């Protein structure tokens, strides 16, 4: 190990002068600590708590950005931080008081992951410890901070490495090891990994993977006129194979092959970068170019309706307030557009979103349906989420129904059905800094039955010849291919032609798996099934 104290002698942190030697705790650090404490003690969501605290304390601009970096960064890096703290203190972090653990995580994050000067990180952390933990624990915090500050991040990670590949990746990229394994399996593809859990599927559907279903390849290449084939892109900003900000360029197309270790690193690293806020310009109400002009944003890479914001609170935008646009990741837009673009013969008037809350996809589908004289019904089981759907779609002709999608029935069948299934959400970890530590691998078993039943219900509700999109914001094979493999009375349609032609790395089909490190979107999975 090398001594890193000297590296930190000259601070590049503009806050150094203001906060470095003082015994007070500045607003951003105090707010970051409160976010960590709310997450630890109240199971709060950081992305809900932080904006409230910033607003309440009147913190904006650079201080708000610093508070965000500290709170989100510390939550994401918790796994690596806890390993360092345990090693430096000789005590498991779970054995420490919650306040001591969170103060130390915040302090060690500054030491190892930011350009804050070491003495500024140490002084402010000890001051914070005095305030929230008391004088004695502050001495312990001081000692741990000093010990950690002797070495660089790389040195700590080298010291803590075990030589076991998945465990070391989990340590370096700060993910639970089971998630690293599930991502490795998903990148390798269903045929390589078989059952994602390594155990036989209990679905009763025989061997897992999509091979069970007949694959219907649409040879006409038909795409309805309303599909945005001419995907607009800001050429100066992104070439088709450019890496999204913060992501690592994938090494070739690895679909259907053994996952490259480098690609697994890139997939995990992408979860440690905050994504830009993306908007969806509602078709027929505003176009993306106009929305980009009004919001000072830029056009999305793939969806003709996507606009990316550089900064600012989307809630302040007139187009959001008056319902001409909503906040939505481009990946979510693409899967909804794929359902709308799936070829159909015969009637195309009744659309259904079976798991609609909070209503992002219902808003996009509802706007598209209106332009085709179709009508969307949005079903959601949770009452408060059904209210959110009603609010999100209030200016659209959408029927919102509070019901269990597994048992929902109507007198007539539907032509297009979306099952955006409740899932682990592991494809959107970059948006939810604490989520990776909340989820347990056993959650997947609980979700499997619900996902299977919702897909079966969708196939009951769709008319023969109609289409169902089974979608998750998770790449985990147990929630994607294994669920699709349980479908009966339906054929898989090749979903790839329903996505923009420029989208790289779509693999061999028939399903589509998006990834943050490949496409800059959430890791959305999409299977399109046609009822026989
Ligand atoms: C992944 S979210 C859907 C996101 C939504 N499509 C959007 O774009 O905003 C899954 C939703 O399914 C709902 N859900 C869970 N179980 C359900 C059930 N049995 N029937 C209907 N909805 C259900 C959850 O409450 C949650 O709102």
UniProtKB/TrEMBL annotation:
Matches recorded under Gene3D superfamilies: NusB-like, Vaccinia Virus protein VP39
Segments forming domain SAM-dependent MTase RsmB/NOP-type: 240-532
Sequence ranges of Basic and acidic residues compositional bias: 1-14
Keyword line: Methyltransferase, RNA-binding, S-adenosyl-L-methionine, Transferase
Keyword Oxidoreductase tagged: no
InterPro entries (alphabetical): MeTrfase_RsmB-F_NOP2_cat (IPR049560), MeTrfase_RsmB-F_NOP2_dom (IPR001678), NusB-like_sf (IPR035926), NusB_RsmB_TIM44 (IPR006027), RCMT (IPR023267), RsmB/NOL1/NOP2-like_CS (IPR018314), SAM-dependent_MTases_sf (IPR029063)
Binding site for S-adenosyl-L-methionine: 355-361, 380, 404, 420
Gene Ontology biological process terms, A to Z: regulation of DNA-templated transcription; RNA methylation
Residues at the catalytic site: 473
Example of a GO MF term: RNA binding
Keyword Cell division found: no
PROSITE patterns (UniProt xref): NOL1_NOP2_SUN, SAM_MT_RSMB_NOP
Similarity comment text for this entry: Belongs to the class I-like SAM-binding methyltransferase superfamily. RsmB/NOP family.
Protein name in the entry: Fmu (Sun) domain protein
């Amino acid at each position: 190990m090398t001594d890193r104290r000297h590296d930190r002698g000259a601070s590049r942190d503009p806050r150094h002068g203001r906060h470095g030697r003082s015994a007070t705790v500045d607003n951003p650090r105090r707010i970051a600590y409160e976010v960590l404490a709310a997450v630890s003690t109240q199971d709060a969501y950081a992305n809900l708590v932080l904006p409230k605290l910033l607003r309440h304390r009147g913190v904006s601009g650079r201080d708000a950005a610093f508070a965000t970096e500290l709170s989100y960064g510390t939550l994401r890096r918790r796994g690596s931080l806890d390993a360092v703290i345990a090693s430096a203190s000789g005590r498991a972090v779970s054995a420490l008081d919650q306040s001591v653990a969170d103060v130390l995580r915040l302090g060690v994050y500054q030491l190892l992951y930011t350009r804050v000067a070491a003495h500024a990180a140490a002084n402010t952390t000890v001051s914070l410890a005095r305030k929230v933990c008391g004088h004695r624990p502050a001495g312990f915090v001081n000692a741990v901070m000093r010990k950690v500050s002797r070495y660089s991040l790389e040195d700590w990670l080298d010291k803590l490495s075990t030589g076991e590949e998945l465990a070391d990746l989990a340590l370096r990229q700060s993910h639970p090891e089971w998630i690293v394994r599930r991502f490795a399996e998903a990148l390798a593809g269903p045929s390589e990994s078989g059952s994602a859990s390594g155990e036989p599927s209990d679905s009763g559907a025989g061997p897992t993977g999509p091979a069970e279903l007949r694959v219907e390849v649409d040879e006409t290449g038909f795409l309805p006129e309303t599909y945005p084939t001419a995907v607009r892109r800001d050429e100066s900003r992104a070439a088709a194979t450019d890496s999204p900000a913060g992501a690592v360029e994938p090494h070739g197309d690895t679909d259907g092959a053994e996952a490259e270790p480098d690609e697994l690193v890139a997939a995990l690293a992408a979860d440690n970068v905050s994504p830009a806020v993306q908007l969806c310009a509602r078709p027929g109400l505003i176009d993306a170019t106009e929305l980009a002009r009004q919001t000072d944003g830029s056009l999305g890479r793939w969806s003709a309706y996507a606009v990316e914001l550089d900064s600012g609170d989307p809630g302040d935008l007139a187009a959001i307030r008056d319902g001409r646009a909503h906040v939505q990741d481009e990946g979510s837009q693409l899967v909804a557009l794929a359902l709308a673009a799936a070829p159909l013969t015969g009637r195309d008037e009744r659309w259904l979103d079976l798991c609609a809350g909070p209503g992002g996809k219902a808003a996009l589908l509802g706007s598209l349906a209106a332009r085709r004289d179709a009508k969307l019904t949005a079903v959601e089981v949770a009452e408060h989420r059904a209210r959110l759907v009603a609010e999100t779609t209030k200016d659209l002709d959408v029927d919102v129904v509070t019901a269990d999608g597994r048992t929902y029935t109507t007198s007539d069948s539907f032509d297009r059905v979306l099952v955006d299934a409740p899932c682990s959400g592991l494809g959107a970890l970059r948006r939810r800094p604490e989520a990776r530590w909340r989820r347990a691998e056993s959650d997947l078993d609980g979700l499997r039955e619900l996902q299977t039943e919702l897909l079966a219900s969708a196939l009951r509700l769709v008319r023969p010849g109609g289409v169902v999109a089974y979608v998750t914001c998770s790449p985990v094979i147990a929630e994607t291919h294994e669920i699709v493999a349980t479908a009966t009375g339906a054929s898989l349609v090749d979903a790839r032609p329903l996505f923009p032609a420029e989208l790289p790395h779509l693999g061999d089909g028939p399903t589509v798996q998006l990834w943050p490190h490949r496409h800059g979107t959430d890791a959305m999975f999409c299977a399109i099934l046609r009822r026989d």
